[in-house]
């Protein structure tokens, strides 16, 4: 869609995933046996055929850059537009901007060179399958300055507590933005706005010593804009803690949840050519999500297994998430555990966490 360009802002996404973000930013955390968290919003932008997408990241972005590459996996390796990874580059000695406004001020060329008239702005913590074309059509139909996307949550969970909430009038416009934990309308950290208005507000906020675009330009000054609210009704998960990551990973073992996320549009990720998983004669696998390239000789129950994992004979993996290239040796047992990449678990080792607070083993650990 030539009228829209994408902004994926990771600046405010803190390291709430503890060991899982020791060596990477949150957007690069693996999810659903073969993906990274950023793949979902990037795939939504790909399906909407956005002209160009900028990823703004401040720290721990080496893993993310390696994953995204030139954007080919999302059809964004183009001569004009495409994917731009924009790490911090503060080279203007007169710059007084703060917070995420620094990214926008120091990358004005990215916005000005794009022919798109509108911006779709998102983070990576809210996994969804929003149709940006439908959101954009709604934005135009309402004649709004800004359109915010939200979902009405029937059963609020602890991961929703930090999320902003929207109060919406009968006319479809936002009447308030707040953080009342009992309010069901959870804001998905996703909005559409005209590019020129966006840049005007960036400059206004910088001139007034502000730090964060959404909080200072939209939430604090909502009375200055016509803010429409688009209700999204599809799959939604918030990944903002280890507990929410673990819970939502295992929720995908439910067929209806899995289909809700993957049925309508394919999710793209970095391509890795690996052989199919080998299930040896002693393997016993049930109700699990297993990626390719694995060798399984043990027992796997209710678990998510990423690429290249080796589970030896006699080993048991129950209610766990095992990331890429982990090795679980003979007769080892893990239950309610998250193993980050390249963990080696020695023979006869037993690790048992709690279903509400899983035991997390950091990347490349040997135990």
From TrEMBL:
Domain of life: Bacteria
GO molecular function: glucose-1-phosphate adenylyltransferase activity
Chain segments annotated as transmembrane: none
Keywords: Glycogen biosynthesis, Nucleotidyltransferase, Transferase
GO BP terms: glycogen biosynthetic process
Keyword match Nucleotidyltransferase: yes
Domain Glucose-1-phosphate adenylyltransferase/Bifunctional protein GlmU-like C-terminal hexapeptide residues, every copy: 282-348
Domain Nucleotidyl transferase span(s) in chain numbering: 17-152
SUPFAM superfamilies, A to Z: Nucleotide-diphospho-sugar transferases, Trimeric LpxA-like enzymes
Family: Belongs to the bacterial/plant glucose-1-phosphate adenylyltransferase family.
Official protein name in the record: Glucose-1-phosphate adenylyltransferase subunit GlgD
Species for this entry: Paenibacillus stellifer
